[in-house]
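Bit of a strange request maybe. I'm writing a small parser for structure token strings and I need a real example to test against, not something I typed by hand. Could someone generate the tokens for this chain?
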Amino acid sequence: MTTIADYIIEGDERRFSFEVLPPLKGTGTEGLFSTIDKLVPFNPAFINITTHHSEYIYRELPDGQFERLRLRRRPGTIAIAAAIQQKYNIPVEPHVICSGRTIEEIEYELLDLQFLGIRNLMLLRGDKAKEDSRFVPTPGGHAHTTDLIRQVVRFNEGFFADGTPIKNPEAKFDFGVACYPEKHEEAPNLEMDMHYLKEKQDLGAQYAVTQLFFDNEKYFAFVKKAREMGITIPIIPGIKPFAKLTQLTVVPKTFHCDIPEALAKEIVKCKTDDEARQLGIEWTTAQCQELYAHGVKNIHFYTVSAVDSVVEIVKRLKTPPTSPV
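Reply from user aminoacidic:
Good idea to test on real output. This should exercise your parser:
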């Protein structure tokens, strides 16, 4: 079976990949498959599927007291990954995260993924719970992505987390990790953040996908510094088109990335979301073309709230420029 690492490391063709969310609990797969249907004609290299930990909600009881309940709003990452792989015959890459999972629960996820023939993983710590001020590991779980990587590597070597041998080891997992050109929000500085990326590489990560960014210079500087530090794995740029006026303030706060001054000046001129979306398409198309010009072969798109923009951008990137008459 061709792995994502094969596409990224060995392929010479320019390819793209994209990330999708599992459906909200109870909504079915129609909307998700509609998103994928729009992008499949452009031959994506793989589809990345996010996962989410549970969170607490509070329900008022008849006596006026509140009951705290755990709720997962987007269950089914593994099942959705299997459904996508079967329906579209495209490599899938589900997220496997530390957040909200015990080591034993992660182990069962790995077993389920093996049974389903899914061999590509994105290993992440995951976000902190909304009710917590900082990331708190689940009791019996991992605190860091590096701990999760060690568990997967041990599993690949034929051992469960408690050291018990796996009687019939199957095909090994390939995996990628995340990286942050403008540093992770919790990192004290970019250099220390990149030290952890180097550690992830040394433990076995085969590639990294960046957090979204709008300024290519920050990506180029990040890759240059990574190479100087001995980080040799492919670093795939993660791109999300600007699509709504409200994103001018929401995106920097949510994703901890800057919107370049040149883009921000154009955004404030927009009067409608449609104008903002068109601006986002133009900016992102130019951004991707510049990445290609600098030798980037693979671009990863975050499609949430921007799938139609991504379709238009990929269409433009796949269409050769018209020769002057």
